Amino acid sequence: MDEADGWVEAPRVTWARPVQEGVVACVTRRTVGRQFLLRPDAWVREAFGYVLAVAAARHGVGVIAAVAMSNHEHLVVWDRRGCLPVSVQAPEKLDRFDHLQAGGSTA
User: Fold this and answer.
1) Which end of the chain is more exposed for a tag (fewer CB within 10 A), N or C?
2) In which element (H, E) is residue 62 found?
């Protein structure tokens, strides 16, 4: 059917979700290109924990649970200040983590 028949296709848009203080939210994010980048080793666990802790501390988000799978992550967070969209973007905006490489210095 088309407009002449009275049928109009709805736009395929995801509506913005309301952002409120004090909400517990589940967040799932994929790696770039859905590649298997998150190896189950100590370096990845430490880097993931560090990035998550820095982003949470900067934005006042409490992390209830977190898991890094091979190509995605799941987070359960408590958004104390109503800034979840900014805090979810924060890890992508942090500087590169070359200093976290195994055997590298922290300076």
Assistant:
1) C
2) strand 61-68
Asked if 19 contacts 85 with a C-beta cutoff of 8 angstroms, the reply is yes
Instruction: Please report where in the chains the tokens 């104390």 appear, as a residue.
Output: 80
75 token code pair: 């987070």
> What is Dmax (Cα atoms) for the chain?
68
- pLDDT single digits (tens) 49-61: 998 898 888 888 8
Between CA 54 and CA 72 the distance in angstroms is 19
Tokens of 66: 């977190």
CA angle at residue 21 from 19 to 23, to 5 degrees?
80
Tokens of 54: 């820095």
* Whole-number Cα distances in Å, 71 to 33, 38, 63, 68, 84: 9, 6, 20, 8, 22
pLDDT one-digit tens code per residue, 2-22: 556 666 676 677 777 788 889
Name the token pair of 76: 């359960």
